[in-house]
Amino acid sequence: MNKTVLITGGAGFIGSHVVREFVTKYTDYRIVNLDALTYAGNLENLKDIEDRANYTFVKADIRDAALMMDIFRQYRPEGVIHLAAESHVDRSITNPTDFVMTNVIGTVNLLNAAKEVWKGEYVGKRFHHISTDEVYGALGDTGLFTEETRYDPHSPYSASKASSDHFVRAYHDTYGLPAVITNCSNNYGPNHFPEKLIPLCIHNILHNRPLPIYGDGKYTRDWLFVIDHAKAIDLVFHRGKDGDSYNIGGFNEWQNIDLVRELCRQMDEKLGRPVGTSEQLITFVKDRPGHDLRYAIDATKINQELGYRPSVTFEEGLGITIDWFLEHTEWLEHVTSGEYQQYYEKQYE
Ligand code: NAD
Ligand code: TYD
Question: What CATH number has the domain spanning 197-220+253-295+313-335?
Fold first, then answer.
């Protein structure tokens, strides 16, 4: 094998697409997927590639500093793509400490292990930290987040991600660790866990359950198809500049209410239900505390410096996503049994 790349959080939503992209595209890399398999981690996401010769799964928790050191000593990765995280804003509001432990302490544990094992020999090494546009806080009705926008996180989730970004930058500036950071907008696509807006609404439409819209539904998010995020990560991992950060997005803003209406329209069409059936399920519910009004990414830097372009339009991506969920109802039933039911009741009922 040419090199070993350790991908953390590879059993989760985005991580599984990154693992697949790397395992299939770089058959000369050994891909080590490190994941604790929390409620959000699911090896079913990787069934199609789990037998590949260049793929290894390691069940481990990034909160365990000694274990991270052992794993780095054993596998000696030249590259790290770090996605493992607690990722849901609503859960961070109920349980902020979990987010500090995984997102901040877990990231520092990985940085320490990389620093220790690489011992200052940084040629050919790379620590790629996957972050979010939510670190920049909230926009008003106009403007876009650039790489220079000041960090201003509001939720415990975004505060923990901002903190981890600062640690990655600090390890680059202090120890010379060859690190890059990417800050991506909201993802959607196959394998998306149904606690997040789009898959939650797909699941509820299938079961004729209310579609909970927080507040007035005018909150705006910028949506990118998950496979296009994985491709951007590939580009930055291989061609990004050490010490730099790159925003990733597709200039695709939607108010939540408009997005859910579009989803209802496409679902009715695909399910052969009369137009307007699913929209009747829309229910306005209590707002999320500290709800950020608007996120919107300026992706000019990655477009111009690395030639990045998303491969699908939103309409196409949403269509692919809905089709995937309709063809994988078993996956949906598996992930919504058990813990999900308790979470759902506590959050919405
Ligand atoms: P996810 O919740 O679907 O998956 C997270 C994965 O990390 C799971 O497989 C889980 O088992 C694993 N994990 C959690 N805690 C762990 C621990 N302590 N040790 C080891 N593994 C652990 O998340 P996602 O949506 O795929 O997000 C992946 C990354 O991308 C996160 O860092 C997130 O902040 C970032 N991000 C997400 C989005 C988005 O829209 N989902 C957008 C931008 C950035
Ligand atoms: P979400 O998918 O949780 O992603 P994030 O909070 O990271 O942006 O939420 C997307 C938007 O949808 C956000 O403005 C909150 C809103 N939302 C609802 O209106 N209802 C819901 O049930 C959920 C989960 C989210």
Answer: 3.90.25.10
